[in-house]
């Protein structure tokens, strides 16, 4: 009776227990919706205050929705 082992001759397909890392360009942090100043403040781990909302508005004006991408993995 033979034991079943993964076929080592196959190309590197994802197999159970595979520890490969997903490349950054395949990871997504947004779902395609607009980013609000509140979203940016919360993603930065800050409290929603007038001062922090103003910071977030400036950041969104300068960087657009990418400002959120820079904060999240």
Q: What this model shows, in words?
A:
It contains three helices and no strands. By secondary structure, it is an all-alpha fold. It has a domain at 30-71. It starts with 36 loop residues before the first helix and ends with a helix. The model has no long low-confidence stretch (mean pLDDT 77).
In short:
37% of the residues lie in helices and 0% in strands.
Keywords:
mainly alpha; single chain; 73 residues
**Average pLDDT, all residues:** 77
Tell me the major beta sheet: none
Helix/strand structural class: mainly alpha
Sheet-strand content, in percent, reads under 5%
Low-confidence stretches: none
Distance between the termini: 47 Å
Radius of gyration: 21 Å
> Could you state the order of secondary-structure elements as H and E?
HHH
- As an assembly, this protein is single chain
The outline comes out as elongated
Estimate the helix proportion, in percent.
25-40%
Number of E-state strands? 0
Individual helix count: 3
Biased composition (Basic and acidic residues): 10-28
Region (Disordered): 1-37
Topology:
Blueprint: H1 37-43, H2 50-63, H3 66-71
Helix pairs in contact: 1-2
Biased composition (Basic and acidic residues): 10-28
Region (Disordered): 1-37
